[in-house]
Design brief:
This protein has a two-stranded antiparallel sheet with strand order 1-2. It has a two-stranded parallel sheet with strand order 3-4. The protein is mainly alpha-helical and 123 residues long. The protein has four helices and four strands; from the N terminus they run E-E-H-H-E-H-E-H.
Length: 123
Amino acid sequence: AIVNKNSTWEFIGCSFLPGIDSMKKDLQKNAAMVPEITKPKNIPLIGTNTISAVASGIYRGNAILIDGMIDAYKKELGVKDIEVFATGSQVDSVKSLCSHDIKPIPYLTLKGLTILYTKNLKK
């Protein structure tokens, strides 16, 4: 979410990206003979076999996509730096490949739903 901290924490907007698990499932379902992979310890930018090529595309590609979105946000907002938070089960597997600092918030959706549920119980 893009929030203007200089005012009253006004919500400006946000972006959703497909997650690592979604990308892997889609490749396995729709591409011929793509094996199931787990994140290798070292992910080359240029894969030299099917496994490393898929890992490069999924993990490094996702990190490059995230970095590009952050750069675009900064340009659009006219700022030099922004605070970035991410959620999802695979945040830690991608944030180390990003050039920007990303603060993971695991289970953000569940935390938000819990807050809403608690507030509604009081009514």
